[in-house]
């Protein structure tokens, strides 16, 4: 490990422990908040990572998390006054369109994951394609890792429910050796963070807001795609 990576890990925000409830009912990923979600707590998405702090009408968000033996389930409730997916190629500047970004470290081991898969930073676009950086430093899709669907409210047009079911993978997963997903079990510790890329019509995103406060490195808080040590730590609660 380089001195730079070690330093970044040491000055990351301290990990806060949280529990994720188990669901015996498989959640249908359809953008509809079914009653199964009632057992999970809401968590806000309040922290500015990059850009300007948006007003509540421009962007606000919160999320819930559940698990079963196959999936980690995420439900995000997003208020976004302008939804934009202007770049057709999913591998081109995917961070500059509106996107839900989910960061996962399947064993909460932390460390640098910029060009490896010891942790993942899934950028999920409005067309539900999930992109992260491959080991050759180029973007690739990981659509087989998750199922994503969002739906706009019929009564509140700026309000959407976004649901995702995510399979988890061990640190041994590589692009050359794509291992099968790992089963989830009670007591397992995860690194987890959620963020939203918000573009209101500019060439680049205006706002990047996350669920966890990140201590900047040389003034830069956009560390989640590099350092899994900035994620929150969660424990899968007993069934």
Detailed description of the structure:
With 239 residues, this protein is mainly β. Helices cover 3% and strands 36% of the residues. Strands 1, 2, 3, 4, 5, 6, 7, 8, 9, 10, 11, 12, 13 and 14 form a 14-stranded mixed β-sheet that branches. The protein is globular, with a radius of gyration of 17 Å.
Features:
239 residues; Immunoglobulin-like; 36% strand; disordered N terminus
Q: Which assembly state applies to the chains in this document?
A: single chain
Beta percentage is 35-45%
Number of helices: 1
Distance between the termini: 37 Å
Name of the top-level CATH class: Mainly Beta
Tally of individual domains:
1
Instruction: Using the 3D structure, state the CATH architecture.
Output: Sandwich
Percent of residues in helices comes to under 10%
Average the pLDDT over all residues and give the rounded result: 92
- In the CATH hierarchy, the third-tier topology is known as Immunoglobulin-like
Secondary structure layout:
Layout: H1 3-10, E1 17-22, E2 43-44, E3 47-51, E4 59-67, E5 72-80, E6 99-105, E7 120-125, E8 130-133, E9 139-141, E10 146-152, E11 159-166, E12 189-198, E13 207-210, E14 232-236
Brief write-up:
The chain has 239 residues and is mainly beta.
């Amino acid at each position: 490990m380089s001195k730079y990576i070690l330093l970044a890990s040491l000055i990351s925000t301290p990990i806060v422990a949280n529990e994720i409830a188990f669901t015996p009912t498989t959640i249908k990923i359809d953008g509809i908040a079914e009653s199964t979600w009632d057992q999970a707590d809401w968590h806000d998405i309040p922290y500015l990572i990059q850009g300007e702090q948006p007003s509540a009408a421009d962007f606000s968000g919160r999320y819930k998390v559940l698990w079963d033996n196959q999936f980690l389930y995420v439900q995000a409730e997003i208020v976004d006054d302008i939804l934009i997916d202007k770049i057709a190629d999913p591998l081109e500047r995917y961070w500059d369109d509106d996107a839900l970004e989910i960061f996962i470290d399947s064993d909460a081991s932390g460390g640098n994951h910029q060009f490896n898969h010891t942790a993942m930073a899934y950028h999920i676009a409005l067309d539900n394609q999930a992109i992260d950086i491959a080991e050759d430093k180029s973007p690739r899709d990981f659509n087989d890792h998750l199922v994503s669907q969002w739906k706009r409210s019929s009564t509140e047009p700026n309000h959407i429910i976004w649901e995702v079911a995510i399979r988890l993978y061990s640190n041994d997963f590589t692009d050359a050796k794509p291992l099968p997903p790992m089963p989830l079990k009670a007591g397992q510790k995860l690194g987890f963070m959620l963020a939203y890329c918000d573009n209101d019509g500019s060439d680049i995103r205006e706002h990047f807001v996350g669920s966890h406060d990140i201590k900047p490195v040389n003034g830069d808080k956009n560390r989640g795609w590099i350092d899994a040590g900035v994620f929150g730590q969660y424990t899968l609660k007993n069934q």
